[in-house]
Amino acid sequence: MEAEHIGLATMASLLRLVGLAASVAVSSALTIAEINGNKFLSPYSGQTVSNVTGVVTAKGPDGIWIRSTKPDRDARTSESIYVFGAKFASTNNLTVGDAISIGGKVSEYRSSKAYVYLTELASPTLEEKLSSGNTVKALVIGKDTSDPPTQQFSSLDGGFVFGVPNNVSLISVANPVLEPKEYGMDFWESLSGELVTVRKPTAVNKPNNYGDTWVIGDWKVTGRNGRDGLTQTEKDANPETIIIGSPLDGTSNPSTTKLGDDLEEITGIVTQAFGFYRILPTTAIKVKKSQKPALPSATKLKSDGKCNGITFGAYNVENLSPNSSHLGAIASHIVNYLKSPDLVFLQEVQDDNGPTNDAIVSANLTLSTLAAAIANSGGPQYAFTDVDPVDDQDGGAPGGNIRTAYFYKPSLIRLYKPNPGGSLDANEVLAGPTLKYNPGLIDPTNEAWTASRKPLVAQWEALGKKGKSEGKFFTVNVHFGSKGGSSSIQGDARPPVNGGVEDRQAQADLTANFVKSIFAKDKNARVITAGDFNEFISVAPLKSYVQTSGLNDLDAVANIKPVERYTYLFDMQAQQLDHMFISNSLKKHAQYEHIHINTWVDKAAQISDHDPSVAKLDVCS
């Protein structure tokens, strides 16, 4: 692609911002833009350079940043660079606004081979202090630069950052020419080392444990949801975002920032560290205003108490054990926000002594404790069912033996011909159709489920007056393998490593084929699969799951706007890992809601890392 050029007016403006005195000498040595080059890696890496001139724009604990006194017209080549040397500034009494000429070694640094390199000048020597007191003004993103690209991260991603196969190339090997108007990583790389300002920033996630906070500015964005976060949608993973890292003045970013918070203007240095492009602000970010209402409304989907209006909840309760500090809050959520659904799909239910690593696998105490807490919170007296896993074989926290489970109202729903299977019993669809084990697991000894939860299948009947059966339906409660081992979305591997995607593909195939076997016995069977699929609807495992199973994505059936389909926050994304799929026979009058009780609050108030969802379906018409 042809080089993108900075206009003459912009170049003149940049020179004015630098404000160099006339005494600054013009050198025939390499410029900063030449050192950076128009790719990710410097063409001069490993070489010693001299007479590099620039103005100090910022100081950090381990070095300084300088901006070129000789900017070029190429938007691909950053005009700034990091000078690494903890005592370089203090030894030479350097401060912001000093124009200097230095020498040093061009280096490419990264703290992990999974990350993109940062070009820097190491082992610096001060050759001359040319002048002091020069004006330093930050470049305003979207005004003095182009807007960040809104869809693609890298030219090496093949058009889809979550494409399969992934990890087929490395930026450090391919070293593509930057295209900053097309690809998000290229845009931020073209500003590496630059002092920038983000106007009207908005937080699009909660801070991590270090206070790092993802934001957008007043530039064009895509995927904006009603809370002012950015939702990951089909082939759009929001590369226009940037993370705000540790402040250069030693202050700390707040830990209470929430999704959608309006922040004060941010000025800082663009760099690459810990797998992400980031801005190191000159001082801590400050929250101006938070979204209202602070909490979401409760679901509007309430049970009709009969088979043509049954409600279904789904909730990953995050390592719930009898002694979990959040158990009471989970109970309150189910009663007050989910309005006590008739049947609840639960994931991440631990055994009776939680993370204690012993031979206990039963979760009866965990489930009965939650059921009692729900009743004490004004909810119904739920019955429950699950199948114990083999000890330490289903992943999750060591000793926890997490599994999926069902809560249900026995006055309205009951298991049809109950016949529970065991940990190693493979369920089958029999004539009727009915299940060999009710409830039972899908092919639990298959290697696809190594260190992962096996789907819990059940067949139910809705009860009418005097306990008469008025409609049968099947459910499949899933918690597919985790994304552990994934690489940074802005890392070296392209497309990024989507950890466990091959396992989830195999798990999706097994589950989809089981559902398909139900339809082989009854094409009009009522089937609901729900839970934590640990995958996005646009990625291969779930695309093939829908195609093979014949089920329908309930978000689409219920016409939920794509930007409002989220149950989880990760990096710069509001994203959906939790899904519900239904058979054609359940589409009529189907309704669905995601209750953002965990994604909207700050980190301290978060009860689970997932939002729950509620559906209302007719299981008898």
Automatic annotation (TrEMBL):
Limits of the Endonuclease/exonuclease/phosphatase domain = 315-610
Transmembrane stretches, start-end: none
- What are the UniProt keywords, alphabetically? Signal
Organism superkingdom: Eukaryota
Q: Span of the secretion signal?
A: 1-29
Q: What would be an example GO MF term here?
A: catalytic activity
User: Keyword Protein biosynthesis, does the record have it?
Assistant: no
Name the record gives this protein? Endonuclease/exonuclease/phosphatase domain-containing protein
- Record organism: Didymosphaeria variabile
